[in-house]
Amino acid sequence: MAPENDPRLDEIKSKLASLKEQNTAIEKKHTNKIQDSESMQVGLRAGAELITSILAGGAIGYALDNWLETKPLFLIAMLILGVITGFVNVWRTTQNVGYQVGYKDLNKDE
């Protein structure tokens, strides 16, 4: 019997193809879970940076107003600066700017 016409060989090939398809499906599902997890991490980090910078600006403005007795002036100014800083940090986080090793080298012209 020639090896090309062996039914056992065809059976092994079909089982191998089936296992490869299953493995590909499992790898794809795992890759999607990893991507979802990374997206959630970026979203949580961006939200935390926004909230933190707004609260820090408000706290600094409130403290300056109490110290200098200028009630709403510094609170409003520092809240505005906190919001601006928060949005810049969210943009940097979502664009992945400034968080890699060698960030300072990005702006150098070589």
Key words describing this protein structure:
79% helix, 0% strand, mainly alpha, rod-shaped, single chain, 110 residues
Report on this structure.
The protein is mainly alpha-helical and 110 residues long. It has one domain (8-98). Helices cover 79% and strands 0% of the residues. The chain has two helices and no strands. It has helices at 7-68, 71-95. Helix 1 runs antiparallel to helix 2. It starts with 6 loop residues before the first helix and ends in a 15-residue tail after the last helix.
Question: Could you give a short description of this structure?
Answer:
The chain is mainly alpha-helical and 110 residues long. 79% of the residues lie in helices and 0% in strands. It is rod-shaped.
Total count of strands: 0
Integer average pLDDT: 86
Low-confidence stretches: none
Number of domains: 1
- Distance from first to last alpha carbon: 68 Å
Largest sheet: none
Q: What fraction of residues sit in β-strands? A: under 5%
Alpha-beta content class: mainly alpha
SSE succession: HH
Coarse shape: rod-shaped
Fold topology:
Blueprint: H1 7-68, H2 71-95
